[in-house]
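> Could you send the Glycosyl transferase family 1 prediction when you get a chance?

Sure thing. Input:
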Amino acid sequence: MLDVKTTYKSFENYAQFISTTDYDEIRELSQELEGLRVLHINATAYGGGVAEILHTLVPLMQDIGLKVEWKVIEGTQEFFEFTKRMHNALQGKEDNLTEADRNLFYEITKKNSDVVFNDYDVIVIHDPQPVALPKFVDNRGSVKLVWRCHIDTSTPNQQFINFIDSFMDYYDAGIFTLKRYAGQLKVKRLYEIPPSIDPLSDKNRELTDEELKEAINKLKIDPSKPVITQVSRFDPWKDPKGVVDVYRSLKVKYPDLQLLLIGSMATDDPEGWEIYEDLLRYVGMDYDIRVLSNLNGIGNIEVNAAQKISQVVLQKSLREGFALTVSEALWKGTPVVGGNVGGIPLQIEHENNGYLVNNIEEAIRYTDNLLADADLRKRMGLEGKEIVRSKFLITRHLKDYLKLFRDMVK
Ligand code: UDP
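Output:
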């Protein structure tokens, strides 16, 4: 297992985003929990929502007085191919769990079992990749184990969910984005904690004019013409081709329209390359579509700029855990047209701060509404920012975790 280093963050800087009641509550909880030894374990330090959150949550927990570490498991290409299949199957995809799959999963988990559970008071294990660790770690001591699942496992493939369920007995609690995501899993204590964004990160902070200009140059778009954007891992559930279809249909009415498809390659997601190549073929020779990724130097500031300057952000997922990208766009005052799945309806109130869509036709119609009406965009943008401020900032997330830790150790 590898240690992940994070950069220092001061909780004081976040006071500006929260009420004094929330501020005081966090300070009281942190006093109560001072010195608590916490370990987060997940599968990747970069790419995807979980890593994104831990890069802020871990330093903030440290700053308020907890002793927090973050480790990632090490796996082979074959292992991550399997865990990606598992991810898809847990979201409902047909698949067959073989004896060889189980053996591979156990073999790699065992190789990562060089962690001393007894050194910590609480360990939070994120998602299915490291879920089996407790099976192989001796000397558990009095540590409390929490499994944080970011996937909607309520309509899963039965073989895979049974497999995951076979580990639930090791855990003292489970956290899901929505309680109902746990479905049939036998979780001892079930917590509902939605994800959140960091308003001060490069991804979400206010950019200077200079930064914005530079980022637009890197994105190679013309900001005087309309832009629609989707930011997502290259993954079929995010429906990037559907987004291209929406763009193509609207291009007839808005000949200047540009489409930005920004996707990252996560180290634990080998499927990404295939989807990326396939998407390039689908896009073909249309130079008003730009398919960009971290491999073209598109980092947090460029993603920030794209979400900020777009007239509409799309998140046309077919299945989704939460979709941080929705909160990220809303925080910048950009309305979002999002799939009516997973955590997206938590963030989009239909016709208030964006639109929830069930198919391409609806996505076309509502994106068109927004492209045609600057006042509507502005009004929805303001509503969206307010929803994120009240529900989906990292400060709320931090408070939820502290409360859970208190429950675990009292
Ligand atoms: N992301 C990014 N660059 C990309 C694609 C995604 O920085 O090219 C980030 C995105 O901004 C968000 C996270 O990765 O913070 C994706 O989280 P989300 O919950 O939307 O989806 P997940 O990848 O966890 O399914």
